[in-house]
Amino acid sequence: LTNSNSKLDVWNAVPAVNDGLLRVKLTFKKSLTQRLKSFVYKDEQFWIYLKFHNNTIRKYRIIPENASDGIWINPYIYNSTKNYLVKQIMFKCSNQIIMSENLTIEWEKIEFEKEPDCILNFFNVNNFNPDSIVLNSVNTFDEVRDTLWNKLEETHVSKISYPDVKSQIIKANSFSSTFSYSLDSLSFGDYKIITDCWVKSPCYKYSGKISLVLSIDDKNRNVIWKGLPIDEQLIDESQWNNIYNFINYTHDKTNCKLKAYLWNTSDKDVYIDNFRIMIIHSNMP
Length: 285
Known about the structure:
- The protein is built from 3 helices and 21 strands.
- By secondary structure, it is mostly beta strands.
């Protein structure tokens, strides 16, 4: 497969490969400032974002020297029960302002002529099957499209956005727009509830005071509450970062309500965009 020129913070389409192993090799030139910083102090953190067939995103830290040898992309195997499809990738790094944005990616396909499915067979993984998505709601903050999200006041809307026109500015010591959903519409069973959003926090100092929250309440009490500080997923606070949280939930009672929101207890403002909620069956890790 051919090489292609790209940049940091840009999504790249993954070539379609029906069998074998698909890898990507990354090469880039360091800027003078970045070379000096690496020599005197330490190198920046580099990450790869993987976007799957259902638009969920995972991210992993990588070492550029190893990435030049190749990173396994497809088939994406997370556990021994299923094979997932990566449709786009993106590279990001910390302190991106001192980096050279340009990079080269080389796609490499490794074929196994005698046994095309030998990788899946080796891991005892079933072939790809679409996930059973019960609900998929995204708040882009550009316009009110879904009544499951509470309406924003105009003073909480910002034109600093990713990638569309508007985002929400979450003031210090306040909450984002909240997603609320009655779980009575679900049949009893096991589910995975996923939320992710894009966050930009240019003045935030890492302190564990901004959290992405998933919460379920019945009519009497809180059943599940999981607040995940965004700090460990902030690759570069001056850029847009994808923040992810999830819960595994056994739905076995009535009168339960799901809520999702970003909780800002810091003294700084933060921007949020493309806030997504997904409810799927537990066959996805």
